[in-house]
Automatic annotation (TrEMBL):
PANTHER family: PHYTOENE DEHYDROGENASE, PYRIDINE NUCLEOTIDE-DISULFIDE OXIDOREDUCTASE DOMAIN-CONTAINING PROTEIN 2. This is Phytoene desaturase family protein. It comes from the Bacteria. It comes from Streptosporangium vulgare. It holds the Pfam family NAD_binding_8. InterPro entries: FAD/NAD-bd_sf (IPR036188).
Length: 504
């Protein structure tokens, strides 16, 4: 039985909405979460994507870095985030660059083989030493009221300020590294989920890089045990246990700045009033609910989920596929390849050699596979393709999806010793276990404007001092999702910050 008034009505039950609900309910506030779909979690969910196949894939987001340990501890979340032994593997001809977190000598030997000396590894250590230092300093501030630009500058120090916050990352990478492969590996963190030229003075790629290297003070990208659904499930449990009401199948139709929220569920249309409304939906959706037309952002990725009957063979006999695919496996993501793909996509064409990266969750956490699949040696494989902007899929969504998938698999096969198609598991109906999601698919099925994975382009982690970065033009309406300042990714940070804006 719903009440008619709440202290907070949260529009959307994505992981950030759940974080906000949990903090507010634990502080004794009456909270209602309204979620359009039949389940919570938004883009942080697990799904059995292939009928009859017992594999719970993280359908959209798949690795966790930005979720602060403080949020996990505050909310008593029962989740495990497992560190990957191998950071990355990048095939180069018949060899490849292996970054092994557990064996510095092996990493050094791999750098020497691929780059022909020690200079690139030294440059790599200097660069990531600098980002590690920034991570330690900046991560704790993400859960505090905003610092202004000057305070952020003195916090990170002059070298990091210049190279991460002021100069285009493309220019910095070209200056600090000489090898095209190494340059590309560094640049991918600046381009994941972001359609940008890293040399652009607008610095969008810099902002993307920053959020990819500061997560929880380490920048590590960890595997959520049980898949992303386990993270959202733990958050929903925490919110409910604290007394938050969560209504699924409840689509918000309109939001009034006075605090009134109209929604529709299976029983019809209703209104509730919140002293505050917390919008977990993207800013463009909030604008529509308020009766405005905001600008629609543009996402640029192809997500492919696969279940494999076995791991593909590599061209490099010196590396075990289980090592190569447990970290991030870079596919045609050299600096020049990234630039070419960006130019082709900007000109309205699907890149001829799409840059992409894959990893196999089940190598680090087999718990997402049923016992039979585990025994048979099956694995999940997640592919994230870059430079696939929504504009390429508007005219002919199905045809363009097919073309993008074909080009992406060909790109992957070009660096393997056998086609990945030969390794796909077949579902009981004989179909291969593979699904592809374009930005337009995400717009249609997940209600994500433009398919932008961060709700809108990422923003700098500083701003008007004393504010939380969640404020809107209306006093009673706050953002609590990825579109807030310091939002984006599976972090819970904007959910926490919106709750703190109410509680402090
Ligand atoms: C393919 C893909 C891969 C990604 N990979 C990663 C990754 O590995 N790591 C990472 O950190 N991040 C990743 N991201 C980004 C990350 O998933 C998102 O930025 C983050 O999950 C957003 O969380 P949120 O709670 O703010 O919003 P969302 O998860 O978008 O939740 C918003 C919720 O609002 C609901 N909603 C929408 N409209 C209405 C309405 N009218 N009424 C009621 N409810 C409504 C939606 O159904 C949804 O549940 C990825 C995203 C995608 C798409």
């Amino acid at each position: 039985m719903l009440r008619s008034r709440y202290e907070a009505v949260i529009v959307g039950g994505g992981h950030n909405g759940l974080v906000a609900a949990a903090y507010l309910a634990r502080a004794g506030r009456r909270v209602l979460v309204l979620e359009r779909l039949g389940h919570v979690g938004g883009l942080a969910v697990s799904a059995r994507a292939f009928p009859g196949v017992d594999a719970r894939l993280s359908r959209y987001s798949y690795l966790v870095s930005l979720l602060p340990s403080k949020v996990v501890a505050d909310l008593g979340l029962r989740i495990a985030l497992r560190r990957r032994r191998y950071a990355s593997y990048t095939p180069v001809g018949d060899t490849g660059l292996l970054v092994d977190n557990g064996d510095a000598a092996r990493t050094a030997a791999s750098f020497a083989r691929v780059t022909g000396g020690t200079g690139e590894l030294e440059a790599w250590r200097r660069f990531y030493g600098m980002t590690a230092d920034v991570a330690e300093r900046v991560a704790p501030t993400l859960l505090e009221p905003l610092a202004d630009r000057t305070a952020m500058r003195s916090l990170v120090g002059e070298e990091a300020w210049r190279d991460l916050f002021e100069r285009p990352v493309g220019e910095v990478v070209d200056e600090r590294f000489a090898d095209d492969t190494v340059r590309g590996v560094v640049l991918t963190d600046a381009l994941i989920g972001t359609f940008a030229d890293p040399s652009d003075p607008g610095l969008l790629a810099n902002r993307c890089l920053l959020y990819h290297v500061i997560g929880d003070g380490t920048g590590d990208w960890n595997v959520p045990v049980g898949g992303m659904g386990a993270v959202s499930g733990a958050l929903a449990d925490a919110a409910r246990a604290a007394g938050a009401e969560i209504l699924t199948g409840a689509e918000v139709l309109a939001v009034d700045p006075s605090g009134e929220v109209a929604f529709r569920d299976a029983d019809g249309e209703h209104t509730v009033t919140g002293e505050r409304i917390l919008a977990n939906v993207p800013p463009a959706v909030l604008a529509r609910l308020l009766g405005d037309a905001g600008p629609v952002p543009e996402g640029a990725q192809l997500k492919v989920n696969m279940v494999l009957s076995r791991l593909p063979r590599l061209r490099d006999p010196g590396v075990d596929p289980a090592a190569a695919f447990s970290g991030t496996f870079h596919i045609n993501e050299g600096r020049d390849q990234l630039a070419r793909a960006y130019a082709e996509a900007s000109a309205g064409r699907i890149p001829s050699l799409p840059p992409a990266e894959v990893y196999c969750h089940s190598l680090t956490d087999p718990s997402i596979l049923g016992p039979e699949l585990r025994e048979a040696g099956a694995h999940t494989m997640t592919l994230f393709g870059l430079h696939m902007p929504a504009r390429l899929f508007r005219e002919d969504p199905a045809g363009a999806r097919e073309a993008a998938l074909r080009a992406t698999l060909a790109s992957m096969n070009a660096v393997l010793a056998e086609p990945v198609e030969d390794c796909l598991l077949r579902a009981p109906d004989g179909s291969p276990c593979l699904e592809a999601k374009t930005p337009v698919d995400l717009e249609t099925e997940a209600g994500l404007p433009g398919g932008h994975i961060f709700h809108r382009d990422l923003s700098w982690p500083y701003g008007e001092p004393g504010r939380w970065g969640v404020e809107t033009a209306f006093e009673r309406v706050l953002l609590c999702g990825a579109g807030a300042r310091r939002g984006g990714g599976v972090s819970g940070i904007p959910g926490h910050n919106a709750a703190m804006a109410l509680l402090t």
